[in-house]
Amino acid sequence: MRTIDYHMHTYFSGDSEANPREHVLKAIEMNLDEICFTDHRDFDYPIDSFELDVENYYQEIQSLKEEFKDQIKIKWGIEMGLDLDHQEEIENLIQQYPFDFVIGSIHVIHHTEFYYGEFFKGKTKEQAHREFFEETLKCVKAFDCFNVLGHLDYIVRYGPYEDKTVDHQKYQDIIDEIFKTLIQKGKGIEVNTSGYRDLKTCGFPNFEQVQRYYDLGGRIITIGTDSHTSDRVGENCLNVAKKYQEIGFDDVSTFTQRKRD
Ligand SMILES: [Zn+2]
Ligand SMILES: [Zn+2]
């Protein structure tokens, strides 16, 4: 089982100041086999800007790839906000550039977002969580441009609720449908280790859900820290790789020009 970090942000993302070179050095220090940069692009984020200077981003990662080629494998990817209101623009952007890997993430639903809380207004926790999973299902059915679904239960981080945890069982029928759709389309999931910070014991999603994905036939899996600062690169990736092994996965998946290696 290789150890990878396939979800990292740098100063090309609207919400990070991190220098990509520092990420590479940290990844080497952490003994990772391979990394992929996945800076943000969201078309309709209502408050902050998630524009992406794709050309310069490409050039900078290419030169790091060359410079460090004897020490670590470096890939160039993107975390694309899947948003049904912008489907054509999103698919077009991905077609235009030679991304190695695309994370599809749900950050915005009909012009509302989670971080500042707009999405939750007037909803019970159950309503909000159900709507989130239903929208995720619609997106995984509609979009083809991504390789793995990012942070399946991302919503657990947010919301004005005292207990933010997701009761997966309540929505298991929808989550199963998400998994089945991904499997049938040849797409995978990630475990996002930033969950270890928020939930203390596991990533997004938890390993019961990863087991569920595996039992339904899912085999495409990546690991990502969602680092916005270099000190977090590689954090908990080895723990997740070990868990994957226990579940039964042979290896993590890596990608080149959006195809599995
Ligand atoms: Zn994300
Ligand atoms: Zn991210």
TrEMBL record:
Transmembrane segments: none
GO BP: any one term: L-histidine biosynthetic process
Record's keyword terms, sorted: Amino-acid biosynthesis, Coiled coil, Histidine biosynthesis, Hydrolase
Domain Polymerase/histidinol phosphatase N-terminal: 4-84
Catalytic activity: L-histidinol phosphate + H2O = L-histidinol + phosphate
PANTHER family named among the record's database cross-references: HISTIDINOL PHOSPHATASE-RELATED (PTHR21039), HISTIDINOL-PHOSPHATASE (PTHR21039:SF0)
UniProt similarity note: Belongs to the PHP hydrolase family. HisK subfamily.
Annotated protein name in UniProt: Histidinol-phosphatase
Organism: Faecalibacillus intestinalis
